[in-house]
Amino acid sequence: MTIKEKFLLIGFTGFVHLDKKKRDGKERITFCSKYCNEWIFLLLVNENGIWKIEKNEDNDIISTTLNKNKSSIDTEDLLLFFKNYYYANNDFSNDL
User: Fold this and answer.
1) Is residue 27 a contact partner of residue 15, using CB atoms and an 8 Å limit?
2) Is pTM beyond 0.85 here?
3) Which terminal Cβ of the chain has fewer Cβ within 10 Å, N or C?
4) Does the pLDDT of residue 88 top 70, yes or no?
């Protein structure tokens, strides 16, 4: 399973800027939901085959949960967060 397929399984969906001037042809996926009464908004961008975090608005809930500095969190950390915390009690978390 590819990284993108894992993120789509988590609940990410395709993203295109509404403002045509901001469209740069890069593939993006987004996620928005609540966890522990905090909103999580994530925007990932595929740059040369590598998924990177472009935007992370989560009131530090992910970095606090993982006990990491927010600026050091990468997509592998996001998968860890979703597998071990967000979807910890779901059957498909083993697929992540």
Assistant:
1) no
2) yes
3) N
4) yes
- Residue 65: closest CA among 35, 39, 90: 35
C-beta of residue 85 within 8 angstroms of C-beta of residue 64: no
Q: Compute φ and ψ for 17, nearest 5 degrees.
A: -60, 135
* Structure tokens, 66: 């993982």
* DSSP secondary structure code for residue 68 in this structure: S
What three-state secondary structure class fits 44? strand
In the predicted structure, residue 64 carries a pLDDT above the cut 70? yes
Asked if 78 and 56 touch (Cβ cutoff 8 Å), the reply is no
Give dist(CA 50, CA 95) in Å, integer.
20
* pLDDT 10s digits, 1-55: 899 999 999 999 999 999 999 899 999 999 999 999 999 999 999 999 999 999 9
* Count of other CB atoms within 10 angstroms of residue 65: 17
